[in-house]
Specification:
This protein is an alpha/beta fold. It has helices at residues 8-21, 24-31, 35-49, 65-89, 104-121, 173-179, 228-236, 246-255, 286-298; strands at residues 54-56, 61-63, 96-102, 125-131, 145-149, 157-171, 195-196, 205-208, 214-217, 224-225, 242-245, 259-260, 270-278. It has 3 domains: 8-89, Arc Repressor Mutant, subunit A, CATH 1.10.10; 100-156 and 273-297, Periplasmic binding protein-like II (D-Maltodextrin-Binding Protein, domain 2); 165-271, D-Maltodextrin-Binding Protein, domain 2 (3-Layer(aba) Sandwich), CATH 3.40.190. 39% of the residues lie in helices and 22% in strands. The strands form 4 sheets. Strands 3, 4, 5, 6, 11, 12 and 13 form a 7-stranded mixed sheet that branches. It has a two-stranded antiparallel sheet with strand order 1-2. α1 (8-21) crosses α2 and α1 (8-21) crosses α4.
Length: 303
């Protein structure tokens, strides 16, 4: 009978992470290990298997044929372990640490005010919340749920739509008083147009001319920001024009702090907000299912 080695799944996970990240140091950072510890573990794994899995140079790692086969099997095995854990937890009382990665606007204005009620309803859950507009890999970040606006691009994940909101170009009254309101998209070339400092799936500002022709304007200005809330604050300060989803700035528009512009050229595109998670609905940990159901019951889309 083969000896019982409870560390085999851990070895496989480290090896898969090294291959996915491309370097020992990058894998070590995500695993909270030192590069030397990762290197020693890979060496022990190769000694146990009696096969070289990686050819290592100073800059690159290359899979051997044996390593490529082991990697494919390792990914499958880790997926089966994760599925088994989700299935075991599906009927349990919601408990444990829930890791949520959320975009900044929704996190600040809607999610955080709901957290006290969620924790009161589920006292055996603890939450770990990270707010960022940076696009993250849900599996790499070890998040249970990510809340993201915009189009989805990872087919491995499941999404529950929370709402859909129209995009709108806005500016503060003080900015419009100083610089004048643009009357057509071509006028934007003379305005300070705010943009994000990270790549997005949809680049530029779309417009539709009176004759139906579509055009895209690429904003140019003197400020780039890291997230939607920073963009909102920059617009409120009178720095320039910003294009944001209406859910984010509905209260500012209602208060007159931000004014929609070029609405006659607005193509009517909308931005969807999703709660994204790994695994089909029948195999969700109870803590994740409780959180998704809570969001669905308590989040109402503003105008």
């Amino acid at each position: 009978m083969a000896r019982l080695d409870i560390n085999r799944s851990g070895e496989i996970e480290v090896f898969v992470r090294v291959v996915d990240r491309g370097t020992l140091s990058a894998a070590a950072e995500t695993l909270d290990m030192t590069p030397s510890a990762v290197s020693k573990l890979i060496g022990r794994l190769e000694d146990r298997l009696g096969a070289r899995l990686l050819n290592r140079t100073t800059r690159k790692l290359r899979l051997t044929p044996e390593g490529a086969a082991f990697y494919e099997s390792g990914v499958r095995i880790l997926g089966e372990i994760e599925a088994a854990e989700r299935e075991a937890a599906a009927g349990a009382v919601p408990r444990g640490r829930l890791r949520v990665n959320c975009n900044v606007p929704f996190g600040q204005h809607y999610l955080m005010p709901l957290i006290p009620a969620f924790l009161a309803a589920h006292p055996e859950i603890a939450v770990d919340i990270s707010l960022t507009d940076r696009v993250v890999d849900l599996l790499e970040e070890r998040a249970d749920v990510a809340i993201r606006a915009g189009p989805l691009r990872d087919s491995r994940l499941v999404a529950r739509k929370l709402w859909q909101s129209r995009m709108v170009l806005v500016a503060a009254p003080a900015y419009l008083e100083k610089r004048g309101a643009p009357h057509s998209p071509v006028d934007l070339a003379g305005h300070n147009c705010l943009d994000f400092c990270f790549s997005r799936l949809i680049e530029g500002w779309p417009f539709r001319e009176a004759d139906g022709r579509a055009l895209v304007f690429h904003p140019q200005g003197n400020a780039l920001v890291s997230d939607g809330e920073a963009m909102r604050l920059a617009a409120l300060s009178g720095l320039g024009l910003a294009r944001l989803s209406r859910f984010h700035i509905a209260r500012d528009i209602a208060a007159g702090s931000l004014v929609p512009v070029l609405e006659e050229f607005n193509p009517g595109d909308e931005e969807a907000l999703h709660a994204i998670y790994v695994g089909q609905g029948g195999h969700l940990p109870a803590r994740v299912r409780a959180f998704l159901d809570f969001l669905a019951a308590h989040v109402d889309a503003p105008g």
